[in-house]
Amino acid sequence: xxxxxxxxxxxxxxxxxxxxxxxxxxxxxxxxxxxxxxxxxxxxxxxxxxxxxxxxxxxxxxxxxxxxxxxxxxxxxxxxxxxxxxxxxxxxxxxxxxxxxxxxxxxxxxxxxxxxxxxxxxxxxxxxxxxxxxxxxxxxxxxxxxxxxxxxxxxxxxxxxxxxxxxxxxxxxxxxxxxxxxxxxxxxxxxxxxxxxxxxxxxxxxxxxxxxxxxxxxxxxxxxxxxxxxxxxxxxxxxxxxxxxxxxxxxxxxxxxxxxxxxxxxxxxxxxxxxxxxxxxxxxxxxxxxxxxxxxxxxxxxxxxxxxxxxxxxxxxxxxxxxxxxxxxxxxxxxxxxxxxxxxxxxxxxxxxxxxxxxxxxxxxxxxxxxxxxxxxxxxxxxxxxxxxxxxxxxxxxxx
Length: 400
Ligand SMILES: Cc1ncc(COP(=O)(O)O)c(C=O)c1O
Known about the structure:
This protein is of the alpha/beta class. It has helices at about 5-10, 15-30, 50-60, 70-85, 100-110, 130-135, 155-165, 185-200, 225-230, 255-270, 275-285, 290-310, 335, 345-355, 380-400; strands at about 35, 95-100, 120, 140-145, 170-175, 200-205, 235-240, 250-255, 325-330, 360, 360-365, 375. β3, α6 (about 130-135) and β4 (about 140-145) form a beta-alpha-beta unit.
């Protein structure tokens, strides 16, 4: 007889963004010219200065376990970065380095959540947040957002959700945002901070897309808005997106000592330290940054301009202008209601688009937003031009 899985595991579904990427990759191996807007990672190579530091670490035999929370040199580099870029003062003991920001969030949730605690998040949300709450034995609770407001959490709506959620303990906030590309303003963050402090809610502030921000906007960390909110916040960041280092696996959490220390104890029994060579490479990434990082940001900005300007010209499609990350999330509701292809939801829309025009998008349902699709423009300009052309042609074909 097959061994029964745990009840908790039965709630966990595979990541829809990874599944679409796998499907597109399979079609590519069959020789099909697929344009993949599903992936959430920079299409650039890791900059040379970072790779050099990794080579040096190997040559120096820096290949053993390190301290569980990360080497002191790296935690100091992270403290310097947080002070320099965000005006935040932390000591190395307030920093936990983990194998990716994904692991950082899960370690913190595990450290703070008890059974029945509630973890609040916006819809649309990043695909992993609800499952991470469930893995930490907590309950995900969704905060409704409005398209007109870029799907950002509004303080009064948040306050109402907290009132109706007796075990609300954590809010996960993500700016710049995946999947919408929205960026929260200082005022929006101040209002959310006030609600969280008043209700003793911990903010997990996922700032992984901090460096990918356009229109000369400033990224603001909610933790920097005052002493009280800093005590109520764990900042999450990492190197995957800004430094094109997704495969190296390194993220970090910065926050109140007792939470970081507990999250470190969790990590000590899950994964232990991040691989030693990656840690050395990240010291270089943060301390010796060269112009390649800014070059990547400018290229994402150029692509954002093109894709947004093209999408908003499509009839019956609405789209908020993304200001950060590398995603854009148009609303295709009109086409879901007025098509002759028998398409009833965004999943079927994406399936047909992939089959007929070989363009991979992620259906908004994956993020809890059923009327939309998500493009990742971490793709070459040529592919973006051709992919959006095919998308537009598909909409024209199915239109009733
Ligand atoms: C919003 C958000 N947070 C966290 C992560 C995880 O990043 P990492 O590669 O550091 O685990 C991602 C990756 O896609 C993301 O989109």
